[in-house]
Specification:
The chain contains 3 helices and no strands.
Length: about 80
């Protein structure tokens, strides 16, 4: 990621928090491979579990994505 020079938002404990723009960007990235509803669900679950702490959030997204990938092939680019 490119640094814009703007400080990252932090929580009361000093940990970096995920921004709404980052959340939306991740949903769009996931939706390129998976249906939007599934992508949104993955993102929401990760956000809830991580309590918005960025490092934990990214780990949860990756873990959920890997679980889904094992269960179901991508459908976004499937020809009907």
């Amino acid at each position: 990621m490119m640094s814009t020079g703007l400080p990252q938002p932090t929580g009361s404990n000093g940990q970096i928090i995920v921004t709404q723009n980052e959340r939306q960007a991740l949903i769009q990235k996931l939706a390129a491979k998976w249906p939007l509803q599934l992508s949104t669900r993955i993102e929401e679950q990760a956000f809830e579990k991580s309590r918005g702490i960025k490092t934990n959030y990214l780990k949860f997204v990756q873990a959920y994505f890997q679980q889904i990938q094992k269960l179901k092939p991508p459908t976004a680019h499937k020809l009907v």
